[in-house]
Amino acid sequence: MTHLPFSGLISFARAPILDLAADFRADVGVLGLPFDIALGFRPGARFAPRAIREASLRYALPPEGFYDLRTGQRKLAGLQLVDAGDVILPSLEPELARNRITEAAQQLKSRVKLPIFLGGDHSVSYPLLRAFSDVKDLHIVQLDAHLDFTDVRNDTRFSNSSPFRRACEDLPNLKHITTIGLRGLRFDEEAVQAAKSRGHALVGMWDCADLEKVIQQLPEGKNVYLSFDVDVLDPAVLPATSSPEVDGMSYATAMTLIRETVKRNTLVGLDVVELTPALDASGNSNLLIARLIMETLTEVFS
Amino acid sequence: MTHLPFSGLISFARAPILDLAADFRADVGVLGLPFDIALGFRPGARFAPRAIREASLRYALPPEGFYDLRTGQRKLAGLQLVDAGDVILPSLEPELARNRITEAAQQLKSRVKLPIFLGGDHSVSYPLLRAFSDVKDLHIVQLDAHLDFTDVRNDTRFSNSSPFRRACEDLPNLKHITTIGLRGLRFDEEAVQAAKSRGHALVGMWDCADLEKVIQQLPEGKNVYLSFDVDVLDPAVLPATSSPEVDGMSYATAMTLIRETVKRNTLVGLDVVELTPALDASGNSNLLIARLIMETLTEVFS
Amino acid sequence: MTHLPFSGLISFARAPILDLAADFRADVGVLGLPFDIALGFRPGARFAPRAIREASLRYALPPEGFYDLRTGQRKLAGLQLVDAGDVILPSLEPELARNRITEAAQQLKSRVKLPIFLGGDHSVSYPLLRAFSDVKDLHIVQLDAHLDFTDVRNDTRFSNSSPFRRACEDLPNLKHITTIGLRGLRFDEEAVQAAKSRGHALVGMWDCADLEKVIQQLPEGKNVYLSFDVDVLDPAVLPATSSPEVDGMSYATAMTLIRETVKRNTLVGLDVVELTPALDASGNSNLLIARLIMETLTEVFS
Amino acid sequence: MTHLPFSGLISFARAPILDLAADFRADVGVLGLPFDIALGFRPGARFAPRAIREASLRYALPPEGFYDLRTGQRKLAGLQLVDAGDVILPSLEPELARNRITEAAQQLKSRVKLPIFLGGDHSVSYPLLRAFSDVKDLHIVQLDAHLDFTDVRNDTRFSNSSPFRRACEDLPNLKHITTIGLRGLRFDEEAVQAAKSRGHALVGMWDCADLEKVIQQLPEGKNVYLSFDVDVLDPAVLPATSSPEVDGMSYATAMTLIRETVKRNTLVGLDVVELTPALDASGNSNLLIARLIMETLTEVFS
Amino acid sequence: MTHLPFSGLISFARAPILDLAADFRADVGVLGLPFDIALGFRPGARFAPRAIREASLRYALPPEGFYDLRTGQRKLAGLQLVDAGDVILPSLEPELARNRITEAAQQLKSRVKLPIFLGGDHSVSYPLLRAFSDVKDLHIVQLDAHLDFTDVRNDTRFSNSSPFRRACEDLPNLKHITTIGLRGLRFDEEAVQAAKSRGHALVGMWDCADLEKVIQQLPEGKNVYLSFDVDVLDPAVLPATSSPEVDGMSYATAMTLIRETVKRNTLVGLDVVELTPALDASGNSNLLIARLIMETLTEVFS
Amino acid sequence: MTHLPFSGLISFARAPILDLAADFRADVGVLGLPFDIALGFRPGARFAPRAIREASLRYALPPEGFYDLRTGQRKLAGLQLVDAGDVILPSLEPELARNRITEAAQQLKSRVKLPIFLGGDHSVSYPLLRAFSDVKDLHIVQLDAHLDFTDVRNDTRFSNSSPFRRACEDLPNLKHITTIGLRGLRFDEEAVQAAKSRGHALVGMWDCADLEKVIQQLPEGKNVYLSFDVDVLDPAVLPATSSPEVDGMSYATAMTLIRETVKRNTLVGLDVVELTPALDASGNSNLLIARLIMETLTEVFS
């Protein structure tokens, strides 16, 4: 294995490529969802799974793991990581697309301890969450600039503004959502009231000045699905997203929240959505997301 | 009116903006279809109506028309041109989107002599053509690198590979299609056979070396709907398209075919599709398409 | 009205378009000044009015106003916002251009409570300010990395380094200027002395560490014209400007200063200058400026 | 001298840099005019002199000249080439700018056999031509998509649409202009009539199909100033120009016309204008123009 | 297998990925050489193997082959195509890098009928050709704008200007080279004489006007290694190359020369070099090269 | 001298250009090393010397120096600054390249008080440091995200990961290295141990929260060579680098560390490496580095 990131065939962090139909078991499995047709603004997230994989070659995992300068320890030694490829998704048949996402997520979930889903726009989280309908007392931690709890937008109930609304309707086991990083000039009042009436925690970016207090609002001892919308990050840190909101989260704060979430809970799934590679010609946004995923793994598996 | 193309508010060629609901009459009406979610490759055609309008400011039409150096004549003097804005299109409800396109096209068609539709990907041509179901003996001239007559692709019947297949199924008045500019490494054999069995004319780019012979294959004395897929042009001439095919048509050849088509027939509608502005950072592709539309008007109205 | 930001015709925040010659009244009017020929560095600000308008479609104002998550209140409900288009500006006749700017600004000022001017480079502020020669005891708050108080640069007195010098010479009612955000490796000493001798407040970026103290230097109870040069912001936050200076202001600090300014004073006019859209291919800079203007309105009209 | 084009300090083709004030003599002198504020469309030609110089390093002239594969001969051996830098040009004082251009051109003209001027937009040709008011029976060959003979545009007489009109008014010795490559959707009728009434030759791009015939229209035995507007080239060949016109000239045709012009006449000056480097991120447009200038020298000095 | 080109894991045309160490046999094998440090101009060809693979997904080969519209035939049905990944290449140990290339090429050559090598800059052709030292009477057909037969350039004998010079020195079986597409302002006279003295055919781009005559100069009945430097193509057709030369070859002409070469000879190897993906942000250059390779296969295997 | 940064010939801050062979003396000399072939990731640093020079024109030094607003003082008045051009560097002869770098650095060092080296990738620091083998008790302060103390990487001992390892082996006078800004997901454990065993100070980015403490770790009263790898900066601040690491240093912190370093020690040399201009299309990264160098000069010479 080379660690020349411009060389060699591409899989997530140079993990072996295995078909979902195959009978494998692993610690972590990565699945791509090249789907970006939910109503929004600037398309291109369909290229994100590929871009994240390519960037992840900078973080190819050697068998002995990563040596961490700060702690002097090795991390992720022996981790079994698998790349399960992309789900093939028709566009003009969105219900079929949603069903395929759910089915593939169920398969991956049955094979690995931690399934990681690479979006795609945020609409994919709804069919992904359907694969977690059997998880007891499911909690979601959503890092996001937007609430994504809208009922109907522009005549559709399935846009990237609605995944968690739909999930709450369909999944009785979905107990609670903590959304952190909210900001922006305008919100959908009906969505805000609906989320509040369900008892969800809505944490504005302005609340993150007191990070300790935010951490205390995180669930504890729960089964947690983490949904990471890259637009939670500040656009200066991550320009490559469809709907940027200024004055966002630093990478360090995001990693702290992820760390505290996985420390206090059992992480049952992770999605990373709304990365739009073409909006950052330098490719730096892709590199950052690849690292964020690998760093999340160091928190989960240590 | 200024002719500074970087200044002033934007409408197609600085035409007045009128709502489709209003009771107006005009020679030409332009309607945008910012829709790019049909299965394909590189998205972004949703920004094409806006990009074409902005580029068209270089061709703002003065009341006295354009002075043509070659002929010494004025063209398009007094033409009544109207910009009817964009159709609002939901994405994850594709059937609803198709219905809205058809309805808006019907409205525009009832108000102007020549409706011009700015795509959007090529899937919009099917709902557009449904608005022409009342035209007697409808012929289509399609300038395109691809046949777009596929039955089913990736589990959908409505992708940008299928608009003319669907139109043929639904519109008994659609008599014939002439497709010019075909090329590429591979074709859908079933689609080719289906088109041939209906008697359609399939003209390869290689046939265009003898342009006279191609012109003779054009319909004569018919009601013609012209569908212009920008990928018929050579990618060196127009890089900004999702699925480019090398060794394409020059602008001059395309204009000759348009000229001969409108000279011999009655043009009942025109669509221009598959322009993807973000793929040509210079903006030159947009400028070319804006000119092509205005030059088509000089052929129709003279 | 759609809130699909890639769809529909373009006016500032989807406001109605009205000609300055028309007899209208409104709360806010927006006027574009596509002018970027004052001596400087990287041209392209002539495209800023258009780019800001396009970006502002993300902030189309619904009649019921924006719902603010933090306060739970609606903002800008019923605001009458008008887009008055662009001034047509010759380039090689700069005196004529300046006169047209002044005249158009006077017209807009007579029709709306708050006129907003979209530059263009900073040289436009001088002819804009001439339209405010009738305002009693005019104060200027200038957010800017540069002083722009140079007498003569490269043989001209009208470059984007001199607007406030010229304004001070011509407008007896211009009492005071507070410039905040100054930084950079070198300054024009003569300009600094001239500004100081007039009693202007020159606030360096280094002073902004103690924001409370800066706020106390703001005027109170005055008629204030706010001139926002986008290069006051940190280039990481806003890369799209001709002459970036590192270690600049955050968006949050800029909004705090704007908020405190409008709270303590009467805002009589606002210009936003030096945005150069082509320098940020992502378009994020444009989106940020559109939001900054809308958020300023929420501060003024609440 | 290296021929690594990414290495070393920059001057035109690695020529020695000499100040116009110095008392030198040379075969060829290059002078830059970083000026792009004449009314037009997309600014940025101010960066063209620098971009052409940088690209020209690929064509650094060794003392023994270039070896030509086709003829087996050495070309430009011993040519004395000098780079005289750029004229410092104020913007908001356009008359002063024009005077400085004229003066610098006179100086260069007095020192070299062939002065080459790197624009800048086409407005610079008027003050450049004033430096040739002493040339007997001056003829101009203008390769250009546009006529640039407009009297007044957008309230100015000095835009990049008018340089030759102004020159004709001011220079009694300017006998004739041959403009080749004209095309586009619209022309200024008054300008066309004015040019024709003076007997100018207006050669459309459509006439260039019969190149021999065009060549016969070239002047013979005259003092010729060649003005090369890069937009005469096809935008596929040279995308980096403010106002592209489709279906333009190939490089080969342009070089043929240049070759025939210099063969039949005495070339007294050359300008190359309207290159806008930022519109071609590949840099290929700059490389092409650098080569065109060097290849022109091989025609003149052989 | 999907034919959504933005979806799924990446291998050349979705071929199976096999390690060179494995004991496989196939018709065609593809090997990447991400190496771009030979002296030149603009680096970035190290990303070409990856970019070509990604683009090739548009040409994923179905088992039944491609249906060709022009002939009505299926092509490449049942072709066994394998992707053997990239060679791991150190940079500051160039001799070691060359040895690894030779060794990997030998391995691939022993396993497949036609090995295809994806450069990298043109310097890789020398170590590649060393793997063909056992081929009887080896002929090379080189499509290239440059001769690449220089002895020493900038103190090195192994730059991308010298691969064929080195090969001729080392390989007694290398009988003849036909170089087609030569052009440019200057040539290395010593290199030209050396090539001519060996009897090589040097065919200028100007000779390609009479393509029949060029075809007659191709070898016949020989073992031919085809070296395709993408800069043989016109920069308008393929902008993404380090050292573009204007007035180059069309894709159609290049394919004709390839077709005639493989028809008359036995193709023993193919390399495609000097593609620099970052110089064409549209990605169209990559798509063109992927197609050229697949189309070459249709000529070889039919 | 103009201060129009888009005008005029290019040298560092408009300093006079002098050949290293000439017998000159100056305060500061700048030398470019356009070399980027050491193993790494994204090439292009070969264009950095040119890009930094072009950007530095914004900081052309007038004889009277820069006027500093904060202190009211003039800085760098009368500084003798010289641009010594670039070293001509072969690529495929890396040992020769290293020798030329060492030799040129020795020459520059003998002529100026402070030599400044513009990389190039970080591998150049090793041959540069060899020119300082005569400096008593040499200390290095390295601002860098990476340790660059690896023994062998990808079969080479001379990559951009190893310059300081090689320098320590070769230079007995090299006493100590302080590396500040370290961060990233993985480190080379062997390199970390080797550096620690030599007593080097390894300061993580996380330590920089307490900047005072970091400053106390700086050497005092030593001869210091400062090696500035631009990737020490946060990628939001400086995107244009090959191997960005998120959560990096602000410009202000970097300047503080530079200031404190030069205040407490004698600065004997400075290199600035790993700038990759093509990765930041806005050019802002280049401008920032040009300013950082000039600002460093104000600290050294005051």
TrEMBL record, chains A, B, C, D, E, F:
Similarity comment text for this entry: Belongs to the arginase family. Agmatinase subfamily.
Record protein name field: Agmatinase
Species, as recorded: Deinococcus roseus
Superkingdom of origin organism: Bacteria
The keyword Metal-binding appears for this protein: yes
PANTHER family documented for this protein: ARGINASE/AGMATINASE, GUANIDINO ACID HYDROLASE, MITOCHONDRIAL
InterPro entries noted in UniProt: Ureohydrolase (IPR006035), Ureohydrolase_dom_sf (IPR023696), Ureohydrolase_Mn_BS (IPR020855)
Keyword RNA-binding: no
Keywords: Hydrolase, Metal-binding
